[in-house]
Design a protein that fits this description.
By secondary structure, this protein is of the alpha/beta class. Helix content is 36%, strand content 25%. The protein is built from eleven helices and twelve strands. An eight-stranded mixed β-sheet has the order 6-7-8-3-9-10-12-11, with helices on both faces. Strands 2-1-4-5 form a four-stranded antiparallel β-sheet, with helices on one face. 37% of the residues are buried. The structure holds adenosine-5'-triphosphate (ATP) and magnesium ion. Adenosine-5'-triphosphate binds next to strand 2 and helix 1.
Length: 299
């Protein structure tokens, strides 16, 4: 049996009348990457931010390493949680203070957690972290604004690693970067995962890079998870029409087939009957009415 590191149960995050996340459930297994994909505004970042407690959730449960993290917690328990779960943000320009050096950014968490107080030791730890993300020790004294976008995102990754977490939420970590360096950053994340036994929730809005990094994929639309399954099944045997539509929008590497390709438009069907999540085969979940899921799964 695979060990669950995170269980999300009927999570809701409403902002007034906006139901950004509206009752989603999924598990994340230790050591895997779960991709969370969907178009802009569907609730991906809100899901990540709710899980990591940047928001008080509207309803539901988030269980991390066996503990309900949105229940009442002691300071000590919260500190431990804040070390074990980290986030990497989409925009490496906005998420790093340009007036801080790379070393200061990486070491911020050390002060909060009272770690590496000895300055020599601290310098060494920072240097090792910089090297582990493909930068140099000497970079510690440079200011964030002196780095390129890709280098900044490496600093963001080093910061996320600095407290030795077990779970990282990466919220579109490559979408602000040049296409030419996106693959490098994804490869770095994959290597770090292997070396450090990390678990990822990897958020993206298109399915192309997600396939490459994820073991399983959850497809989100308008605050709901409409389909969840292994990456292979989502690609080869998509069931929900929305997933099929997203797949049809992935650019092809070959320019000739690319030019003849058209995205299958998604048109929401009027649902008659109750919507719920159906396990169409083990580990593959589809959201819809009984009638819809029967029809989609056949066709
Ligand atoms: N703090 C907030 N207050 C009010 N509404 C919010 C807040 N954060 C997000 N929303 C709304 O919730 C919905 C989901 O937003 P969210 O940022 O989670 O989408 P997303 O899937 O991450 O989109 P993107 O791909 O553009 O990053 C949107 O309608 C957004 O406007
Ligand atoms: Mg977002």
């Amino acid at each position: 049996m695979k060990e669950k590191i995170l269980e999300v149960k009927n999570l809701k995050q409403h902002f007034g009348s906006i139901k950004a996340v509206d009752g989603i459930s999924f598990d994340v297994y230790k050591g895997e990457t779960l991709g969370l994909v969907g178009e802009s505004g569907c609730g991906k970042s809100t899901t990540g931010r709710s899980i990591i407690r940047l928001y008080d959730i509207t309803d539901g449960e988030v269980i991390f390493q066996g503990e309900n993290i949105h229940g009442k917690k002691s300071k000590k328990e919260l500190k431990k949680f804040n070390k074990d779960m980290q986030m990497i943000f989409q925009d490496p320009y906005a998420s790093l203070n340009p007036r801080m050096t790379a070393g200061e950014i990486i070491a911020e968490g050390f002060d909060i957690h009272g770690m590496h107080k000895d300055s020599k030791k601290r310098k060494q730890v920072i240097g090792t972290l910089l090297e582990s993300v493909g930068l140099n020790r000497e970079h510690a004294n440079r200011y964030a604004h002196e780095f390129s976008g890709g280098q900044r995102q490496r600093i963001g990754i080093a910061r996320a690693l600095s407290l030795d977490p077990s779970f990282i939420i990466a919220d579109e970590p490559i979408s602000a970067l040049d296409v030419s360096i996106q693959a490098q950053v994804v490869n770095l994340l994959k290597e770090l995962q292997k070396e450090r036994d990390l678990t990822y929730l990897f958020i993206a809005h298109d399915l192309s890079m997600v396939k490459y990094i994820s073991d399983r994929i959850a497809v989100m639309r308008a605050g709901k998870i409409v389909e969840l399954g292994s990456s292979e099944d989502i690609y080869n045997y998509p069931v929900h029409p929305y997933t099929k539509s997203l797949l049809s929008a992935i650019p092809l590497p070959d320019p000739i087939s690319e030019s003849t390709r058209t995205r299958i438009p998604y048109k929401e069907e009027e649902a008659t009957g109750e919507l719920s999540t159906h396990e169409v085969f083990p580990g593959h979940f589809v959201y819809g009415t009984d009638e819809q899921v029967k029809r989609w799964y056949k066709g």
